[in-house]
Amino acid sequence: MRIFLIVLLAVTSISSNAEIYKWTDANGKVHYSDKGAGKGTSVRVQNNPPADATAKTRLELYKNQLNGDRQLKEKDAARELQRLAELDTQCARIRNRLINYESVGQIVQVKDGESTYLDHQEKDKAMAEMRLFLREYCD
After folding, report:
1. What share of the chain is helix, strand, coil (3-state, %, to 5)?
2. Cα(14)–Cα(52) distance, rounded to whole angstroms?
């Protein structure tokens, strides 16, 4: 937010390079205008000089920082979407495995080319771990 205000002020000061005049009318009322008084004398109050090179450089740096922040947020959002998509895939895989474990009597695991059977305790433990994962990350 602070960067936005600085940029806004810099842009406003660059674009407001006009002279401002002050004069007092016959009734003693003070007036301000970008044009001198039609009758009588007017005094130039302000003349904004053009922005110096350092101000322009700072403005460019702020713009680059703002663009960099936006690009970083976009990258973070894309990474988060990718992470959520991978989690959805993993949740679907575990749900299917849990359904399979619940529907069959005995589970065969193949590890390093050898088949082993899970006993009831191992099967129940594996199912409990799957339910816990689903509850924590998928529901």
Report:
1. 60, 20, 20
2. 10
- Paired sense of beta strands 30-33 and 114-118, if any: unpaired
pLDDT digits (tens, 9 = 90+) for 24-55: 778 888 777 767 666 556 566 555 556 677 87
3-state SS, residue 50: coil
| Beta strands at 114-118 and 107-111: parallel, antiparallel or unpaired | antiparallel
Contact 43, 21 (CB under 8 A): yes
Given the DSSP bridges, would you call strands 30-33 and 43-47 parallel, antiparallel or unpaired?
unpaired
Q: How many CA atoms lie within 13 A of 67 on its CB side?
A: 6
Q: With residue 60 as reference, give the H or E element that holds it.
A: helix 53-103
User: What tens digit of pLDDT does each residue of 56-92 get?
Assistant: 788 888 888 888 888 888 989 999 999 999 999 999 9
The DSSP-derived string for 100-123 is HHHH-S-EEEEETTEEEEE-HHHH
